[in-house]
Amino acid sequence: MKFSLNMNHVYALIALGIAVCTTDAAKADEAHAVKLYNTYCVQCHGVNRDGNGINSANMAVKPRDHTDTKAMGDTPDETLFKAIKGGGLAVSKSVLMPKWEGVLNDDEIKELVAYLRVVSKTTAK
Ligand code: HEC
């Protein structure tokens, strides 16, 4: 059997390489987002990401259930980003959702938005 590599094989290998690297980068971002969420968000939004964090029992406005596919699916990425960066007030919601500007940078907030898409089983919009 003769083994030969034509340009189509080369292109396919390059494409595969890019796909593998992109997936690795996405996985690393997601792992980082999980850490951020478990540090900064979990006390309100809960270990199950369903809005039932330890603080939520005494809160006048319940934290968003991030597993709610319908509600999260209706919310654009831009709104999620704004809400995390500027807090509830930035999107005309409760001040009980703190702003994270100054704690998290824009890249970290984008990682969190992408992670919320995974948690809520919704796609970016
Ligand atoms: C002190 C409690 C608290 C913490 C900590 C907190 N949140 Fe919230 N969050 C809330 C509350 C309360 C709401 C609901 C606001 C409303 O519906 O008026 C909310 C809503 C949201 C929303 C929905 C915004 C929208 O427009 O629907 C997102 C997204 C969100 N939080 C993300 C996060 C992320 C990410 C973190 C961690 C970096 C975080 N929250 C930390 C209390 C909190």
What does this structure look like?
This protein has 125 residues and is an all-alpha fold. It has one domain: Orthogonal Bundle (Cytochrome Bc1 Complex, Chain D, domain 2), CATH 1.10.760. Helix content is 54%, strand content 0%. The chain is built from 4 helices and no strands. It has helices at residues 7-45, 69-73, 77-86, 106-119. It is elongated, with a radius of gyration of 19 Å. The N and C termini lie far apart (49 Å). The model has no long low-confidence stretch (mean pLDDT 95). It binds heme C. Heme C (HEC) binds at residues 40-41, 43-45, 55, 59, 61, 63-64, 75, 79-80, 83-84, 88, 91, 93-94, 96-98, 100, 112.
SS-based class: mainly alpha
CATH architecture annotation: Orthogonal Bundle
Kindly report how far apart the N and C termini lie. Answer: 49 Å
Low-confidence stretches: none
Count of extended strands: 0
CATH topology: Cytochrome Bc1 Complex, Chain D, domain 2
Structural Rg: 19 Å
List of distinct ligands in this structure: heme C
Name of the CATH superfamily: Cytochrome c-like domain
Average pLDDT taken over every residue: 95
Task: Give the count of structural domains.
Answer: 1
- Strand % is under 5%
How helix-rich are the residues, as a percent range?
Answer: 40-55%
Indicate the CATH class. Answer: Mainly Alpha
